[in-house]
């Protein structure tokens, strides 16, 4: 199922029909997705909280029974069974969210928020080697198109893959797989060779899709589907489809992009901060897994922010990521305030100052076993 075409964009257009603003439609879709993901986020956060409590107990069990492998195995099985621990419990919600995140990224990085090409491969050989051959009727790749009136269509390019002789001419065009295109729909055409625009002496293509290939080689013909909202302003943001990277971010007209990139990093750092356990573990007592996890949470916001400085993302994508992070930070803060389900300590006798938890629900209070003097 194409989540972008069949779900994300229809919801987006439904909100746009009410607001007549793609900026507010973007915000509405982001908030809607965060609401849908709430149960998964809650489950994932609860699993992370539980794992933060589990580590010290596991370490204690391993230390107590390190000289008795059979008893260690028994106690570990008992611990996992009584506490219903699943080490992979936090991974499943994350895996379920991945298709949604990919669909969202695809939604905001193409029409209506930005231009995006449909690519067709063309192989050009010497005249004596082959005659014109159409390998595919239409392109494998398709692209959603949103008209200025808010109508949705799925566009493909024809012919889809071609083998031609040098000097031969081809007429490329577009057609809909689903929906209807307006009469004035007109993609922008370009020919790419070796990752950059082909030189005129090698190949040319007109505004109507008429192409001429003069030199042999492998080419890609791009039909660039326009994003109708790419120039729409939203509050302080000028152009939802605007792209700026590297030193371009220092241009005054691109400061809104720079602020969104930095805002993404800060909001991610805040979200990671809220996910840290309330009871901080002494760094000297951390195991390797805890150290790696803590270091990753510190480095990730910086690494991703640096990556987005050089990644050409439309401003609309950055607006989504910033809003999503802010909402996730709020969700995480609320979830981390919830009481954590207490764990059952299966060790035989507690060390001085430790607590043996016998409760199995958040409403039960842990019972302390005091060591006799």
Q: Could you list some keywords that capture this structure?
A:
about 45% helix; 6-stranded mixed beta sheet; about 375 residues
What does this structure look like?
- This protein folds into 2 domains: 3-109 and 235-336, no CATH class; 116-225.
- Helices cover 43% and strands 17% of the residues.
- The chain contains 7 helices and 12 strands.
- The chain has helices spanning 3-19, 22-64, 69-83, 91-109, 255-275, 288-310, 315-336; strands spanning 116-125, 133-136, 143-146, 152-158, 161-165, 169-171, 173-178, 188-193, 196-197, 203-205, 210-213, 217-225.
- It has a 6-stranded mixed beta sheet with strand order 2-5-1-12-8-9, with no helix packed on it. A 3-stranded antiparallel beta sheet has the order 3-4-7, covered by helices on one side. It has a 3-stranded antiparallel beta sheet with strand order 6-11-10, with no helix packed on it.
- Strand 8 (188-193) and strand 9 (196-197) form a beta hairpin.
- Helix 1 (3-19) crosses helix 4 (91-109) and helix 2 (22-64) runs antiparallel to helix 3 (69-83).
- The longest helix is centred in the first third of the chain and has 43 residues, at 22-64.
């Amino acid at each position: 199922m194409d989540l972008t075409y069949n779900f994300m964009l229809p919801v987006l257009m439904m909100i746009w029909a009410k607001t007549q603003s793609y900026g507010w439609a973007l915000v509405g879709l982001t908030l809607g997705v965060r609401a849908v993901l709430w149960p998964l986020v809650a489950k994932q956060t609860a699993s992370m909280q539980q794992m933060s409590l589990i580590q010290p107990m596991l370490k204690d069990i391993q230390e107590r029974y390190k000289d008795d492998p059979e008893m260690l195995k028994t106690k570990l099985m008992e611990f996992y069974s009584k506490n219903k621990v699943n080490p992979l419990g936090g991974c499943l919600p994350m895996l379920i969210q991945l298709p949604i995140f990919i669909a969202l990224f695809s939604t905001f990085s193409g029409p209506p928020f930005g231009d995006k090409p449909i690519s067709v491969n063309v192989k050009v050989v010497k005249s004596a080697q082959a005659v014109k051959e159409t390998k595919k009727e239409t392109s494998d790749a398709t692209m959603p198109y949103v008209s200025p009136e808010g109508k949705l269509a799925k566009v493909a390019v024809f012919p889809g893959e071609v083998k031609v002789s040098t000097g031969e001419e081809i007429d490329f065009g577009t057609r809909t797989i689903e929906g209807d295109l307006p009469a004035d729909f007109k993609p922008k055409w370009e020919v790419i060779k070796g990752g950059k625009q082909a030189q005129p002496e090698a190949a040319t293509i007109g505004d109507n899709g008429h192409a001429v290939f003069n030199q042999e080689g492998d080419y890609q013909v791009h039909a660039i589907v326009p994003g109708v909202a790419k120039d729409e302003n939203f509050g302080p943001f000028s152009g939802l489809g605007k792209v700026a990277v590297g030193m371009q971010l220092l241009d005054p007209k691109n400061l809104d992009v720079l602020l969104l990139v930095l805002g993404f990093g800060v909001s991610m750092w805040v979200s990671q901060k809220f996910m840290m356990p309330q009871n901080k573990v002494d760094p000297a007592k951390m195991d390797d897994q805890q150290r790696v996890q803590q270091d990753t949470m510190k480095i990730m916001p910086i690494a991703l922010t640096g990556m987005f400085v050089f990644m050409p993302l439309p401003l609309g994508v950055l607006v989504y990521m910033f809003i999503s992070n802010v909402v996730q930070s709020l969700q995480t803060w609320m979830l981390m305030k919830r009481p954590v389900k207490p764990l059952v300590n299966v060790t035989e006798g507690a060390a001085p100052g430790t607590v043996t938890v016998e409760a199995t629900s958040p409403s039960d209070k842990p019972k302390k076993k005091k060591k006799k003097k």
